[in-house]
Amino acid sequence: EVQLVESGGGLVQPGGSLRLSCAASGFAFSSYWMTWVRQAPGKGLEWVANIKLDGSDQYYVDSVKGRFTISRDNAKNSLFLQMNSLRAEDTAVYYCARDSSTNNWSLFFDYWGQGTLVTVSS
Amino acid sequence: DIQMTQSPSTLSASVGDRVTITCRASQSISSWLAWYQQKPGKAPKLLIYEASSLESGVPSSFSGGGSGTEFTLTISSLRPDDFATYYCQQYANYPRTFGQGTKVEFK
């Protein structure tokens, strides 16, 4: 059974940093693209970033470029999101999701974690 | 960026109704479109990919159609478990973008 479990969320002050983790199990982690998607309270879904199978390529939404870094540790079946210079508008539930793709182009998201809440406030 | 626009934003319906949600892309995305269902406090769930392919385990009452810039998600007969919010998402270009969501509520 595919499982994705996020951790690392919490309350942080504006300008602060936070590192989210996603522990994956039940599938060959190193064979799939992985993605972070967020959802602000009461709002819709927003794709944040994704990373290729071997970590060699990463893509970001413009609003987080230069502040967030997605990475993965295939030996530990783990996905990460390092978030720096956090702003109030980054407040959201952050979901880790598996991309269905096992090749060079990412596709849709077939499994999701339960999410972790990040609150940016003074 | 490719803008995804869903209509309606809210849909009031009854059990047994046939409902259709429309998603329009600001430029052609071929068939690179997915649909997700989300219930309050839960993670989204994949329903449809490549515009019309049904994800394994999803009831056949769900169907997707369209290509290019206009797409539909149809529920042929609404069940109590189907009252939720639905999102379309394009994966033709970066950044990946979602529609704003359509909430299907009890009439």
Can you walk me through this structure?
The complex is a heterodimer of chains A (122) and B (107). Chain A has strands spanning 3-7, 10-12, 18-25, 34-39, 45-51, 58-60, 68-73, 78-83, 92-99, 109-112, 116-120. In chain A, strands 2, 4, 5, 6, 9, 10 and 11 form a 7-stranded mixed β-sheet that branches. Chain A has a 4-stranded antiparallel β-sheet with strand order 1-3-8-7, with no helix packed on it. Chain A is globular and about 40 Å long. By secondary structure, chain A is mainly beta. With 107 residues, chain B is mainly beta. Chain B is built from no helices and 11 strands. In chain B, a hairpin with a 2-residue loop joins strand 7 (62-67) and strand 8. The mean pLDDT of chain B is 97. The chains are: A mainly beta (122), B mainly beta (107). The A-B interface holds A 35, 37, 44-47, 50, 59-62, 95, 100, 106-110, 112-115 and B 32, 34, 36, 38, 42-46, 49, 55, 87, 89, 91, 94-101.
Shape of chain A: globular
Strand content of chain A: over 45%
Residue-averaged pLDDT of chain B? 97
**Sequence stretches where pLDDT stays below 50 over 5 or more residues of chain A:** none
Distance between the termini of chain A: 40 Å
Oligomer: heterodimer
The pLDDT mean of chain A sits at 97
The major sheet of chain A is characterized as: 7 strands, mixed
Based on CA inertia axes, which overall geometry of chain B fits?
globular
- Sheet/helix structural class of chain A: mainly beta
**Range of strand content of chain B:** over 45%
Number of strands of chain A: 11
Could you tell me the radius of gyration of chain B in angstroms?
13 Å
Kindly report how far apart the N and C termini of chain B lie. Answer: 35 Å
